[in-house]
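Hi F.,

I've been meaning to write this up properly since the lab meeting, where we talked about keeping a consistent format for the predictions we share between groups. The idea is simple: the sequence comes first, exactly as it goes in, then the structure tokens exactly as they come out, then a line or two of notes. No screenshots and no reformatting. I'm using this chain as the first example so we have something concrete to point to.
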Amino acid sequence: MMIRKLLIRGFFILLGVVAAAWVGTWVWLVTSKDILNHPLASLPIYPLACTTRGCITSASTLNFHQRAVAFSFASLTDAPTFEESLSTVIRRHLAKEAFLRSPVTLADAKRYREEILHITSEDKIKEVASMSVAQYDEDVLVPFLQQEALRQQHSVESTEELYGILSSQRRVFLLPYYFRWDTDRGQVVSK
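Output, unedited:
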């Protein structure tokens, strides 16, 4: 009986130490001024923003930012800032979780790529976007088509108006200390 109590007490102490360590490292991450270069940014267990439909982690934001920088380098455009990348990831999350009367499928993305964009060569996509055709369809075209379907569904002209509407419908909790979520424009801004 005594051993059982000691094991249970030891378990809860260990659980408390692990939870305190996680909270401490998470606070270290979200109070950092340079989150993308933080040693913990690539770990998928640290949320940066949350809605009622889930959280956006530092790892998913870092992954998106790295792909966006690679694309901007290949297309000779300016690289996005951390705020722009985090805004895009949150906007994609809002669009993905929004109610769509007619959902967008991978087949729609493939049809759009082939019939509208006239891109059938995987080499061209690998050269410019550094990803496979399937990954391009899923990560680039599906979010774009969802955004356009939502824009038409809400009868708005600009994406800024659309994301203002979507962010007013679903609360976004932005956790990094040096940034805040602008609900009117649906984007991350510096404090």
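Notes:
The longest strand covers residues 47-51.
The first helix runs from residue 2 to 30.

If this format works for you, I'll send the rest the same way.

G.
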